[in-house]
Every structure is written in C-alpha cells, then in structure tokens.
Design goal:
The chain is of the alpha/beta class. The protein has four domains: about 60 residues, 3-Layer(aba) Sandwich (DNA Methylphosphotriester Repair Domain); about 110 residues, Orthogonal Bundle (Arc Repressor Mutant, subunit A); about 60 residues, 2-Layer Sandwich (Double Stranded RNA Binding Domain); about 80 residues, Orthogonal Bundle (Arc Repressor Mutant, subunit A), CATH 1.10.10. The protein has 16 helices and ten strands. A four-stranded mixed sheet has the order 3-1-2-4. Strands 7-6-5-8 form a four-stranded mixed sheet, sandwiched between helices.
C-alpha cells in the first residue's frame, strides 16, 4: 500500500482484521505485529504503522512471536541470521549456494524464504546493502566514484552504473559534484508559513525551503546545487507546490510525491522514521533514536533531522525536546508551532 490512514488502520487493529495489509509496531515494547494478533491491544499513542514487515525491521522493531508477522519462527530466524551474515560481508557478492550451506538448506528454499519474509530476493537485498555503502562512501569519506564502487563490493564499475540511477537519483559523479549537469526546476508560493520554495529534478522533489524573501530562498537553492542548471518554472512545479501545501491542512499528499534526495544510510533511516510519525503527533529525539534501533544515537538523529532537505514532505517539525519544548527548527520555531497546530486540527 502506498500510504496508511492511521485512523482506519487503528480500527482494523481493534477489529483484529486478518485481511489488513500492513503491520503495526509498539514503541514501548519494540515489537511489531499483524493487525490480527491476539495479544492485548496497546495504547494508541505508542502505535506506529508500517506498509510491510521489512519497513518495521528497518526501523529497529522485532517480530512478535505470537502472530509471527515474518512467517513461521523458523523462517524468521533463518532470514534474520542470513541478513546479519550479508551485512557483515557486504564487501563481496555472497552466492545463494553459500547462504544455503550456512543454514543447511537448499538454494531454492532460501530464495523462497527471503522473498516471502522480506519481499526481496537475497540478490536484491545484497544490492541494497552495497548501494547504501556507495552512498555513504561518496557522502562521508569523499572517496572517488571508482573507489566507492569497489569498496562497496561491486566487481566492476559497469555493474554498478547499470542501477546507479535507481540507487542515487543522480549519477554517482553528479551526486558527489553537487548536481553537475543536472536540470532543476523551482517555484515559490505564498503560504501560512510565509514563502515556500519547492524544487525538483525529473525524478522528484529535491528541495523544500521556507522563508520570507524569495530572492534569498533562490540563492540558498543555488548554493545547495551550485553545479546544476536551475530555472524558475511556476507552471511546471504547480503539482508539487499544491501537494506540499496540502500537507499542512489536508491529508498528507506530500507522502506520495516522488523525492530525489541524497542521504547517507543513517539519514535515510531517520527520514523514513520521521515519515512514520502520525499526523498530529510528535516524538522526542530519544524516541526517534529508539525507533530506528539506535537509542544511543540521539545527537546523530538530531543532526539528521537538521539536514533534512525537504521540509514538510519529511516532517522533521514533528520532533520535539524530551521536556515537550519545541526546540530548534531550521525554518524558525514559530513556523514549527504553526505546522503542529495545523496538523492537530480535526480533518474536514
């Protein structure tokens, strides 16, 4: 499912709807379940909804032993063991036959279990791991493109470039060189928060900024993508502008907008967790760190929130201090307060 209506999903959980196509997680226990799980229902404020089990796993939750959302206990344990092995050996391609030998099974059985539990094959899972390594090397270590490719375990650069556009949005070289040769369109609109700038490539929205001065917003965009070709295109960005604006007052249509953002593996996990916070609710930085399975990484989570390039679409404004204070916000605390107030209003 593309998005989840929290109110409808909660009713399905209360009804123990066996046909519901999602899982729910409980922050107080760190466990996720099927909606049909016979366990006692949790307090609603502690519930998070995920479109699939793989997303709940990525956010750091454990599978319930009663309803077995990953399938049988044996299947879940097997796939979890192999995922840990693949993560530890992401610098090379691990053949399916090797995985089968590790758990004393057949390659066909391993392929089937992976697909049934995670929705992807072992090969696809390994590709995701290596792609994450490439992004991290490029963004954090300043590696050359070739070095980053080989450090991530690709046997040749051509193998990586075949899927580079899907993994990075831009090609690897342009990813590292601030959008060189990339075409970016943008538009500015007035809203309840002042001025809203939305920019995007042909693949999706790459920047959402708030401010009071259109010229200053444009300068910030050009600094962010200093090597790209940037043009003002009000009519071409109309759909994206409307979707971002609708997220302030209506159902969050921005969740369905394609995004073209650059992220380390850690940032991507934090931003995904931000998008799982229900509209009208808030979380502390500590709770967000727990949600991604790294409770000690509170400061790193705060930095990832601060570096979010697409305001509102990725709702970093829903994160507050542990004492309930609004804390800092890149676009101003008053804007943060206004956004939260708008989201807490009953939907029409």
């Amino acid at each position: 499912m593309a998005s989840i209506n929290p109110k409808q999903a909660w009713q399905q959980v209360l009804a123990r709807d066996a046909g519901a196509d999602f899982v729910y997680a409980v922050t107080s226990t760190g466990i996720f379940c099927r909606p049909s799980c016979p366990s006692r229902r949790p307090v609603p404020v502690n519930v998070r909804f995920f479109p699939q089990a793989a997303a709940a796993l990525a956010a750091g939750y454990r599978a319930c032993k009663r309803c077995a959302p990953l399938g049988t206990r044996e299947e879940a344990a097997t796939v979890a063991k192999l995922c840990r092995y693949l993560a530890a050996h992401s610098d090379r391609v691990v053949p399916l036959a090797d995985l089968a030998r590790i758990v004393h099974s057949s390659p066909f059985t391993i392929q089937r279990k992976f697909t049934r539990v995670l929705g992807v094959s072992p090969r696809e899972y390994q590709a995701q791991l290596r792609s994450s390594d490439v992004r991290r090397n490029l963004a954090e270590a300043g590696s050359s493109v070739t070095e980053a490719i080989y450090q991530a375990g690709y046997s040749s650069s051509s193998r990586f470039y075949e899927k580079a556009a899907d993994g990075l949005g831009m090609s690897p070289t342009r990813f590292r060189n601030r959008g060189v040769d990339e075409s970016i369109r943008f538009a500015v609109a007035r809203c309840r928060l002042g001025l809203l700038l939305v920019a995007g490539t042909e693949r999706g929205v790459c920047s959402v900024m708030l401010g009071d001065d259109a010229a200053e917003l444009e300068r910030s965009l050009r600094q962010q993508f200093s090597a790209a070709s940037i043009v003002h295109d009000a009519s071409g960005m109309e759909k994206q502008i409307e979707a971002i604006l609708s997220a302030m007052t209506d159902h969050p249509a921005a969740a369905d907008i394609p995004l073209d953002v650059r992220a380390t593996a850690f940032q991507a996990r934090v931003w995904q967790a931000l998008r799982q916070i229900p509209r009208g609710e808030t979380r502390s930085y500590a709770q967000l760190a727990e949600a991604i399975g790294q409770p000690s990484a509170v400061r790193a989570v705060a930095r990832a929130c601060a570096s979010n390039p697409v305001a509102i679409a990725v709702p970093c404004h829903r994160v507050i201090g542990s004492d309930g204070s609004l804390t800092g916000y890149r676009w101003g605390v008053e804007r943060k307060k206004t956004l939260l107030d708008l989201e807490r209003r009953p939907q029409p």
